[in-house]
Amino acid sequence: MATINVGSTVSVCDLHSLMVPELSALERLSRTHPWSERMLNDSLQAGAIGLVLQSNEELLAYGLFSVVLDCGDLLNICVRRKVQNQGLGGVLLDALMVRAKQAGVVNLQLEVRQSSRIAQALYIRRGFEEQGVRPDYYRTTLGREDALLMGKCLGTAGIASRNL
């Protein structure tokens, strides 16, 4: 996927391994339990597909998903704290779903913190449904927190959609 302009100053680009140090810095700025460079590199080396949102060369957000057969797992979405709640998570999620469908994904699943009501609302607006709970899945500053399992059918995959 080439760069796609989604607004007057925001574009969606493919994520590359050379971006990992910048992604890790974004994680540290935006989260209490950030993904490390090693986690990011391991995901990419395992074949994860990622997209970034940029504005004037500034990294605003990124997302990663993995694919096994026709199932996708949304691994991570991270939005720069200063631009959260401005719709960029939705723009990125929409682009990730398009890219996942191009990769042959029929069913896309994710885990989300039970306390993350804003993220849950975004996923519900995009058609994801709750499918279960993973107890004590996430670390918190006070211990552990459950994850809600959510999923969405992206439609049927055809041979043509598997051409990347």
Account of the 3D structure:
With 164 residues, this protein is α+β, with helices and mostly antiparallel strands. The chain has a single domain, classed as 3-Layer(aba) Sandwich (Aminopeptidase), CATH 3.40.630. 27% of the residues lie in helices and 38% in strands. It is built from four helices and eight strands, in the order ββααβββαβαββ. It has helices at residues 20-30, 37-45, 88-102, 117-125, and strands at residues 4-5, 11-14, 49-55, 58-68, 71-79, 107-113, 129-140, 143-153. It is globular, with a radius of gyration of 15 Å. The model is unreliable at 159-164 (pLDDT under 50).
Structural class: alpha+beta
The main β sheet shows up as: 8 strands, mixed
Q: Can you tell me the CATH superfamily?
A: Gcn5-related N-acetyltransferase (GNAT)
Going by CATH, the architecture would be: 3-Layer(aba) Sandwich
Spatial strand arrangement across the major sheet:
1-2-3-4-5-6-8-7
CATH class bucket: Alpha Beta
Helical content class: 25-40%
- List unreliable stretches of 5+ residues: 159-164
Q: Per CATH, what is the topology?
A: Aminopeptidase
Distance between the termini: 8 Å
Q: How many DSSP E strands?
A: 8
Radius of gyration: 15 Å
Q: How many domains make up the coordinates?
A: 1
**Shape designation:** globular
Q: Helix segment count?
A: 4
Mean pLDDT: 91
Q: What portion of the residues fall into strands of 2 or more residues? A: 35-45%
Order of helices and strands: EEHHEEEHEHEE
